[in-house]
Structures are given as structure tokens and as C-alpha cells.
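In this section we walk through a basic example: taking a raw amino acid sequence and producing a predicted 3D structure, encoded as C-alpha cells. The instruction is simple. Fold the sequence below.
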Amino acid sequence: MANDYPMVVVPLEAEDGGGYFAFAPDLPGCISDGPTPQEALASLMDAVGEWLSAQAERGVEAPAPGDANRRALEREEKLYQAMEAALEARKGADEKIQKLERQLAELLALTRDELGRPRVTMADPRSEIGREVRTKH
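The resulting C-alpha cell sequence is shown next.
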């Protein structure tokens, strides 16, 4: 069963001591290392067997092989859905902004029209003009 789990071996930088680091993505904390890729992998296979035995002794069910990949795909799907929702929200906000900009432009045009028109007022009834209507500019 230990061989059913995916295992990853990566080189370590010289500043990290060199050699190789190995881990089983499905089994949290199950890691190993070695001076060569083969030794790191052999050490990891031993670690996987021990990890699975420890879980069984504790009565804890081990994750299925490939479980980390399934979880990663689920996280990616959730992230994709969140991004789609954010884009839709932005689209809706953009449409609202465009509508407000159109309304503002209409209001400004009306205001310019109103300010540019002559204003009609009633003359002071005590003046010579009486109740005649006059236009101011």
C-alpha cells in the first residue's frame, strides 16, 4: 500500500545542505531526505510505511492515495468560482458606474441648458413697467 501513494523528490540547494528532499503529498508531515534521489526515495518509502502504521495504531484512517491531488483540484475549482464571481460583481459595478456617468452627463447638459436660457421674471409692480414681463440675460 505504501507504494500506491505519490511521492515527490526534489533537489536541495547547496545552501540548504544539498542532497534531495522527498515527501508524500497525501500524507501530511511524511517527509525524508537523502544524498541521492534514490536514497531519498527509499527513505521516504520507509517513512510512508511508518506513517501508515502510526495512523493505524491510533485508529485514524489514512487519506486515500491521490487525495492531495483531489483536494488541490477542489481548491482550484473554488478559486476559479470565486474569480468568476468577482468578475461578475465587477461587471455589474462597471454597468452601474456607466449608468451613473450617463445620468450625470444628462444632468450637466440640463444644467447648462438652464443656465444658458434667459430668465423670465415679473417686474416690480411699483415700477413704470408695471406687471410687464421682462427678460434678463
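Looking at the output, two observations stand out. The chain has two helices and five strands. The longest strand covers residues 8-11. In the next section we compare this with other chains.
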